[in-house]
């Protein structure tokens, strides 16, 4: 598992013991049981966790695990995988970020669990233009998308909301847990960081 390989402390919970046989190069802890069982969560030291990903084969189980993690254990970074994309909007209204079952799911789960303020998705050959993804901080929710443009150095060019991406964002307002795509210059990296941290415009 990628997080384990990167040196993070990881606990995997699964009802099926055989599932653990598929783990390679994994150095974390494994527990047999349910992700919403109090005893199992105690063994997993959920109260000390920084992040949780609920990625079982059942949408209801995933959202239940995610809500328990957030509401009972106050885990800050929580994400749930869903199979029915029509439920995504409902889950987002509950404050639970979701990812659909697609090729990019693993990377998206990781981004929600381990958000980085400095990550860059793409850079041009001259290293002067960059594409970056950032989660809308709570204090900026409700702002028009146009207010995320900063001078000549930062342009918001896309939005991922409820597992659906879109580039036609004119007239939209940012929501909590939106993932925004920005095209920025080198100076724009600093300008965007200042904006998202509250010291920008």
Question: How would you briefly describe this protein structure?
Answer:
With 201 residues, this protein is of the alpha/beta class. It has helices at 2-5, 38-43, 59-71, 88-93, 105-113, 186-196; strands at residues 11-14, 29-32, 51-54, 77-82, 98-100, 122-123, 129-135, 154-161, 164-166, 179-185. It folds into two domains: 2-113, 3-Layer(aba) Sandwich (Rossmann fold), CATH 3.40.50.720; 122-196, 2-Layer Sandwich (Alpha-Beta Plaits), CATH 3.30.70.1450.
Protein described:
The chain is of the alpha/beta class. It has 2 domains: 2-113, NAD(P)-binding Rossmann-like Domain (Rossmann fold, 3-Layer(aba) Sandwich), CATH 3.40.50; 122-196, Alpha-Beta Plaits. It contains 6 helices and 10 strands, in the order αββαβαβαβαβββββα. Strands 6-7-10-8-9 form a 5-stranded antiparallel β-sheet, with helices on one face. A 3-stranded parallel β-sheet has the order 3-4-5, sandwiched between helices. The termini are far apart. 26% of the residues are buried.
